[in-house]
Amino acid sequence: xxxxxxxxxxxxxxxxxxxxxxxxxxxxxxxxxxxxxxxxxxxxxxxxxxxxxxxxxxxxxxxxxxxxxxxxxxxxxxxxxxxxxxxxxxxxxxxxxxxxxxxxxxxxxxxxxxxxxxxx
Length: 120
Description:
- Strand 4 and strand 5 form a beta hairpin.
- This protein starts with a helix and ends with a strand.
- Strands 1-2-3-6-5-4 form a six-stranded antiparallel beta barrel.
- The relative contact order is 0.16.
- The protein has a single domain (2-118), classed as Thrombin, subunit H (Beta Barrel).
- By secondary structure, the chain is an alpha+beta fold.
- It is built from one helix and six strands.
């Protein structure tokens, strides 16, 4: 029986940590996402503003971090994370909403954001 109690406590702690990360990330982002209307001639496809929870997985599909997808297009995404410098250069972005996975390459990093390019 103690094992079941430990599993429940571990699940509760993980949920609390996820909630804290989500709250921290949301504090850095406007409450409502707007479509990305700014023109950028370097992009091959238009980005759309979203606020979606996602997981960052290593190339071996091991969990690395939680993030929020800020905007997304057919060719890439901009994500918000607490420690961009700890995000691997190649990763898998797993969207929680539909479990869709995208293999990605990091193109740029700022203090709390990472720009990703989807790799076919």
